[in-house]
């Protein structure tokens, strides 16, 4: 791949654009004459010879390829926890409180709307923030903004994803096999030890062994009953920092240019329900309201509480900056689509409505975020022009 292309794919703007285009194409394709064929392909099962692993094409994307995305995110998280903006309790506290608010309030909004419908198990769907998309919108519309907003958003989104990952592990794990989980943990330890040998003469052999160990660990997690993306998180957190940074740099173009667009396309392969608006399920309306409204209220409230009660260290934002962070936090997309698949796996019609709701709610959040971030950026640019004149 040409270096100019890989450099472009590392840009948050390019990643956000590809995600949006892929989601739109998936939605259009599902409602075109190609829809039935693509749906059949998506549900075709592919097995790994000699193993018990057998997944549909859709699950190979959401359980397999998406683990690469979580691996890259986990490496970034590890960096922030050890050498970045989250390397002390005081630095992490304010975005942590905002992230908690941005999880609790959307859950409350969803449950308020869906109460009594029998669809309350969709409560995790509006809790997630799509890091790639949120940072992409910030990069596109936020020229001239101070770095502290991006730092706060990155910390908030990473902490948000930790919560989402824990929700997946606790609520979407069926009949876990403790033996296989222990074997996967051992594989993670071996992977971590090998990563510390990458600087030696046998680095090619070590690199090959790491790939093999990572694949085996992923397979063990798949068979254990735990959601497979947890393998990506564990391996990313366990990897030694220097090779981890290099690996993240190498994988970013693949993650942004292949993994996320493929997942967005696959997740958006939904036939638009031919029902009136008043017949859409409470789950649909709960998600549509919880993503933009719940996230904005929760993150702004959490940010205000953090600024009020955490005096030392950390990043402080003003009201408009918190509004921008809240709107950006409402872009659930990737992880929210994954949560929707898991929450309504047995109710296809509701799952389809949930996917549409995630797209609509995230779209509303994107519009709000674009407007707020643009106005905020113009304000900062004018201020800088005046002070610099």
From TrEMBL:
Membrane-protein topology: Multi-pass membrane protein
Pfam families to which the protein is assigned, alphabetical: Na_H_antiport_1
Transmembrane segments: 53-75, 96-117, 123-142, 149-172, 178-195, 202-220, 226-244, 256-277, 283-310, 322-344, 356-377
Main subcellular location: membrane
GO BP terms, alphabetized: regulation of pH
Signal peptide: none
A GO CC term assigned to this protein in UniProt: plasma membrane
Catalytic activity: Na(+)(in) + 2 H(+)(out) = Na(+)(out) + 2 H(+)(in)
Compartments it resides in: Cell inner membrane; Cell membrane
UniProt keyword Ribonucleoprotein present: no
Stored InterPro entries: Na/H_antiporter_dom_sf, NhaA
Keyword field: Antiport, Cell membrane, Ion transport, Membrane, Sodium, Sodium transport, Transmembrane, Transmembrane helix, Transport
GO molecular function, one term: sodium:proton antiporter activity
Family under the similarity heading: Belongs to the NhaA Na(+)/H(+) (TC 2.A.33) antiporter family.
Function: Na(+)/H(+) antiporter that extrudes sodium in exchange for external protons.
The name this protein goes by in its record: Na(+)/H(+) antiporter NhaA
Upper lineage: Bacteria, Bacillati, Actinomycetota, Actinomycetes, Micrococcales
